[in-house]
Every structure is written in structure tokens, then in C-alpha cells.
Amino acid sequence: MPRPALHLAVEIDGDGAHPAAWRRAAHSPGELLTPRRLARVAAVAENAGFSLVTLEDSVLPPGTAGGPDPVGRIGAVERAAFVAASTSVLGVAPVVATTYAEPFHISSQLASLDHVSAGRAGWVVGVEEDPAAARAWGRPVVEGADALAREARDGLRVVRDLWDSWEDDAVIRSVATSRYLDRSRLHAIDFTGETYSVKGPSIVPRPPQGRPVVLARPELVPPGLTDVALVGGATPSEVAEAASVSGAPLAFAEIEVALDTPGESARERIADLERYAPWEGGPDRLRYSGSATGLVDLLAELGGHVDGVRLRPLVLDEDLAVLSRLVLPELFVRRIAARPLPGTTLRTSLGLPRPLSRFTTDGAAALVREETR
After folding, report:
1. Cβ 46 vs Cβ 89: under 8 Å
2. How far is it, in rounded angstroms, from Cα 174 to Cα 90?
3. Residue 84's domain is classified under what CATH number?
């Protein structure tokens, strides 16, 4: 049986994946952090047919202070809320790390984003590996892969439980009885981990999706806690192997892309930017440079092994235009990829079920099952 069509995601932080991408941007440097710029990029991605955009983030600036490249960004959750309000179909997933941030606050922010977007929110689970991040937060340094994974795992568990702490029918809004909530359907999560504990419940009603879609690297958190595993590899075969053992419901390949444009080849464009800074990228990401046709063929090959891809364009203004005109239309014509449908949640677009709260009572569960038939 053939696999379902690919789901397409694109990273839209800054001006592109290359640290010097701003030098080839179609806008003035001062426009990078403006809402007009963000709305324009999101509109291009939505009109092209992407299912999801992601927004990179960190408490630390993206570049080196005093260097020639951008050293500032607006918070990913805030940008995601703006994108959600200015689009209607596009899924929006900010990168948020739980290494030092409070899971209670992360839960509230992402639940609010899901309400604002009418169920189109996701979350890319991140980590803060630089010790400078601990100083910025005023927290002790979390060192080592095991400790970083522990903080990500515990933080994710707390966030999921807080989303579940309001049952779906907790809000009753009864004018006749002057009751807004059924307090019996709010639950303390009573989480105790290795380094902290959380009582709960949340201060935000349960998100429209039940839980926003969670994307994470498989080595970071257990697959049972994620919806989408972000897998890498230096070759398509390595990506396929990583996807096969990810254990999550869906696996998305991480791909850095530099495409030929009408005036220059991908090789020439990369060489131009390499004069200013190296394109180091992720050590465990597939990288493609070349024609739009070659990228279509690569995605068709990967379609037999993964459920989606997250693309990281070299320069957004240049590569996103080629993706919109030459790559995505061909993927849709050949039924390699799928567009999101209007009026659906991100979970529905990705073919993921809406989860019940783990605190759901038998009667409420029966009501939810009846409503979803």
C-alpha cells in the first residue's frame, strides 16, 4: 500500500538558513523584524500550499554580538501568534525550549496560541545547550546530553498534563445557574520529576486540538510523547533508517535547501554567501543544492520513507519563490504532497487523532466519541 502524501513544513526564521542570508534579501535590513515582512513570508508559504511553518528561537541572539550578521529576533511565540492571526489554513509551530523556561508558562502560551489559531498550533521542542543561556535565565547550568534530554522530557510531560488538566467539557457557561466552570473537571497534575514538581491545573482552558502538535528530535524525548519526529541524516538512506526507528506517529525529514534561481545556480549563490560566513547548518541534516526538478525527485524518493519534510531554505526571499513556483506545484500535480484543507486543525491536516484528556471521565469520553463520529 502506498504511503499517504507528504506534509510540507518550512522554517521561516530570519532571512534564511545561512547566517549571511540577509545580504541577499529582497527587503532592506531594517525591515527584517517588522510585522509586514513576517506577514508577507507567511502569506507566501500559505498560498504555496505548505501545511506548517516553524519559527526558530532561543533566549540567546542568533548571531555573534559585534559581528556583521543579525543578532536579534522577536520571540517565536509572539511571532507565531501574529502569523496565526494573519493566516487561515497554515499551521504555526514556534521552537520553545524547556531547558530553563517554566513548563507552566510554556503550556499557557501554546494553549493560547492554539485558541488564537483555531487549532493550528504546533510546538517544536528545543533545548538551550549554551551555558550563556543559563546566565540569561539566572539558572544553574544544565550540562550534558542526558541532563538536557531529562529537562526536555520532564518539561514536555508537564506541558501535556497541563493541557489535559481541563477536560473538554469543563467550561459549561450556564447563565441559568451562574456557573462558568464545572470544577470537578479541572485536575491537579501532581507532577514530580528529578529537579522540580508542579501541582497544576492550567489557567487556560484545554486547547481546541486537545494538545497542539508536538515535534521533536527522537533522541531528545521519548517517541510516546511526540506527534512528529524530526529526523536527519547525511543521505536519503540514513534519513529513511532514522524514520523507520523513530517510534513517533509521524516522521519528518530535516532538509536544508539551496535552489537554482533564474539568474544564478545554487552553487553560485552559496559561494557568494560563503565569502561572509560558512553555511555550517545542522550536522545531522540532509542538504540539497541544485535544480527544482532535482528537489522534486528527492522528495518523491523520501516520500516512500517519511511522512513529511521540514525545509530550511538558504535565503527565504529567493528559495521560497522557487519552491512556490516550481517545486510545490509539481509535488501536488504528481500527488507526492498534500495541501492542508481550509477549516481543519493542524492535527486533522496531518492525519493525527485528537487525543482525549488523560483525566477524562467515562461519560465525557463517550460524549467526545459521539461528537467525532
Report:
1. yes
2. 34
3. 3.20.20.30
Q: Which DSSP string do the residues of 198-261 spell out, in sequence order?
A: E----SSPPPTTSS-EEEE-TTTS-GGG-SEEEE--SSHHHHHHHHHT--SSEEEEEEEEEE--
168: Cα separation from own chain's centroid? 24
* Whether 105 contacts 97, CB under 8 Å: no
Q: Rounded to the nearest 5°, which phi and psi values hold at 182?
A: -95, 100
Q: How many domains does the chain have?
A: 1
pLDDT at 214 over 80: yes
Q: What gap in Å lies between CA 172 and CA 224, rounded to an integer?
A: 32
8-state DSSP, 4: P
Cα-to-chain-centroid distance, residue 151: 19
In a domain, 359, yes or no: yes
The answer as to whether 83 is a domain residue is: yes
Cβ atoms of 20 and 273 closer than 8 Å: yes
For residue 180, is it within any domain? no
- Give the highest mean pLDDT range of 66-70, 89-93, 192-196: 89-93
pLDDT 10s digits, 135-182: 999 999 999 999 999 999 999 999 999 999 999 988 888 788 878 888
Query: Does pTM top 0.70 for this prediction?
Result: yes
Q: Which residues neighbour 125 within 8 Å (Cβ) at sequence distance 6 or greater?
A: 95, 96, 97, 98, 152, 155, 156, 214, 215, 216, 217, 220, 221, 226
Measured CA distances, 201 to 162, 180, 187, 360 (Å): 6, 16, 6, 14
- In this structure, the strands spanning 213-216 and 228-231 are parallel
Q: Does any domain span residue 183?
A: no
Chain mean pLDDT for the chain: 92
Q: Up-side HSE of residue 242: CA atoms within 13 Å toward CB?
A: 23
Q: How far apart are CA 55 and CA 203, in angstroms?
A: 25
Range of the domain at 263: 7-162+203-371
DSSP H helices, the chain, are: 35-48, 76-86, 103-116, 131-137, 145-164, 236-244, 266-274, 292-302, 316-322, 328-333, 346-350, 362-371
How far apart are alpha carbons 336 and 315 in whole angstroms?
Answer: 24
